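User: Structure please.
Assistant: Input sequence and predicted structure:
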Amino acid sequence: MTGVVTDAQKEPLVGVNVTVKDVPGLGAITDINGKYKIAIEPYQRLIFSYVGFDKVEVLIKEQRVVNVTMKESAASSLDEVVITGTGVQKKLTVTGAITTVNVSDLMHTANGSVVNALAGNVAGVLAMQTSGQPGRNTSEFWIRGISTFGASTSALVLVDGFERDLDDVNIEDIEDFSVLKDASATAIYGSRGANGVVLITTKHGKPGKINIDAKVETSYNTRTITPEFVDGYTYASMMNESRITRNQEPIYQQDELNILRMGLDPDLYPNVDWKDLLLKDGAMTYRANLNMNGGGSTARYFVSLSYLKEDGMYKTDETLRKDYNTNANANTWNYRLNTDIDITKTTLLKVGVSGSLKKYNEPGLSGDVWKSLMYQNPISVPVMYSNGYVPAYGTGERTNPWVLATQTGYKEHWENTIQTNITLEQKLDFITQGLKFIGRFGFDTWNKNNIDRIKWPEQYKAQRFRDENGQIVFDRVTEEQKMKQTSSAEGNRNEIFEAELHYNRGFKEHHVGGILKFNQDSKVFTVGTGEDLKKGIARRHLGLAGRVSYNWNYRYFADFNFGYNGSENFADGHRFGFFPAVSVAWNVAEEPIIKKNFKWMNMFKIRYSFGKVGNDVLKIGNDEYRFPYLYTIGDGTGYTWADYNYSNSYSGKRYTDLASNYATWEIATKHDLGVDLALFNDKFTATVDYFHEQREGIWMERKYLPSIVGLGSNPRANVGKVLSEGFDGNFAYREKINKVDITVRGNITYSKNTILEKDEENNVYPYQMERDYRVNQAKGLIALGLFKDYDDIRNSPRQDFGTVQPGDIKYKDVNGDGVVNDGDKVAIGATTRPNMIYGFGISASWKGLDVNVHFQGAGKTSFFIDGPTVYAFSSGEWGNILADVAGSNRWIEHEISGTMATENPNASYPRLSYGGNNNNYRQSTYWLRNGSYLRLKTLELGYSIPKPLVNKIRFNNIRLFLRGSNLLTFSSFKLWDPELGSSTGTEYPLAKSFTLGLSVNL
């Protein structure tokens, strides 16, 4: 047989798979001209298949030539499938709240991080990136917000059915991505699904010739916002102002200011721009990915390799480069091999091996670098004294920033993850049609090794004035430490076993399904367990889950799900919990009257779900508690027992931790009401959900029991309660105007929580309780501006925070007792974590050109600003000053001539203080800032070279693209990137990236 395969425009299709139906291993592919050649018996069927096109089947009789025209697949909401916790389902039949993510929308991040791509792309996910440092620049994320203050808030992430770290997944390997949000969707995971579930299916091989995809990217990274500081002359002048306005002597005389301004004595009067000295204008990122897939009808494979290199923003000491690197950089290698083998026509074996290797580097005392860079003022010390001495104002963050970044050695970290899994799928139609068994086993190992090679030079600080001989007097701050090496390691292994029995069958209009699932897992820490026996004991879960589903004529749907789970964290009798969920749906569009009169309505489905899920990870702050039903006994304070003139002390024992025998699950009761829409032949699609969750039995420390109870330590119990509610949704509109394909899309997630119960001390003022307020609610005083004059001070309530003067912050007496103190703190602003994340964008393509624009924003969040850069001269001569403090109006300005001006009670900054001001440096609305922002997250331009040209060099597709990430940020807060959520700005900044890339397929 011979022939030519073309598309609707009569262009030849290269690489079409041509196979003989039901004949394993026999097949061919079309060449560069769309031609094929294959041997076949008469009256067999040829199958033509190609990605993105409808499959064509042709019966061969006696003809020798068959030419085929293939049509592009027309996606339909009725045929769209969703990856759920119970397998692949048609979106039409889903009754739970599930967000299906278009994987191509996630591929526009500069460093390829899946986590960093979630915010503004995935409805139901709230996320924020709190650091831009290579190797540590992934976002925190929460599904539908934070609904507890006592347990883990992290979502469960499953990759090919196995619990994995989302950071270990190469974004190019993802085939399907779903987020399960309500109780009915997550009940199958029992206690592990209380905070939502992320499901990822990686790519698998397809029958046919080897298909190769490659992509390379080069990015230049700058910083979104870099804090700006004053120069040395301005700093010294403002220091004088801070003293003069408080009736103190100035520190710098006019001749000293002139010396500083003209740079005549850089040893005693330096003027160093530490930011310019230490930071490069930008740094490079390199990323490469290669994957291959193919195979025959009995075995398929998918192989993927990727590499990511991220350079840091620090400048380095060129004299040390041949020995070691002190910059903050990271290298990541990912690999994956998925093999599918049809052992028989009814038996499928899937074997997967994946992993990652990470190596990241940082300066020896990296934890203090950004603090020192922000806080070290320009006149404290020079970069180097003229006699060769190394300067330092002090130790820790007060060390010379250049020394911290380049002269303190370096740290190396290696992480190695190996993940193996095997899945067996066996059809059991010989027992009854629609019955299938799935068994999974996974074995993962993770190891991290750290080597710290720390050193620092001998450091000095010059005294303020020279001696009588005009010589500089030096005080030694630190002795030299030769390079000293220390090492540490972490590691764990994880074993997972699951067995599932699936049943799906249709009986005319009736469609029924069922799943019974058994699972168990064991995670044990293999390194660094020390002498604590609990650390060496595996964390184990055991569970049985199930689902029964029914739909009538794809119009009415009902599901019942349950999870029966056990945790090793609870005492006998409390280890197992039963968590049921029910959900129903009605596809209004399938009603006969609707189908007849509203043909433009493809799907209009209303969903409701209700259920309970549990959470067994008990935490207080960052400390996780294991086996809380066990008590511990340690040394007591002892006692003295003696006769006259004798003194005998005896040691005793006491409970260092009380047993919580009845510790049990946090239980979340969840409601969800949702609507799925597909209109106008799927041109417009949308999903909107309202959710309501009440989390009970939140684990917390009981700090306010009366002393008369006689406890030596605070017990812990399940006594907290939080209500969380909100909405999320997304929409997309697709239109073709002439030859231009346009897609407009958007999504939003809003979540608000309220603490209903929390063990706390009673207060006469209800507004000072945490109850009835939000988790992470900002609280402080209400500022009324600045005191105008002494009459204003005398006529205002007394403020118990020290002596105040005109220009100091004036606070509201909330409780009306005539005194302003901590009793007047109230809830102000929003929470320190965003309650709203949204995104919107537009994509268009015309011939070979394509453009993608995406905006992402956050709202309903606020944070306080503080620290030496904001509280000017709060630590005396230590601390830098933001340019905003000098450039904005403050209560009083001191001119060089000594005149005073600008007494403004509404100024942006209060009267300067030297050495601290207890009244002004309090959390209040004066220092509260709105953390909301909107940023141009992605702007990408691409061009695909015409197929006739690339086919001549035996490629299927070649695309060039230029991408910008984090290009613009719109926010009322300008001092540093608001997404960091930092009160001081002393975090490695987020990156603004410009990327040039090339992707090819052959």
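The longest strand covers residues 481-507.
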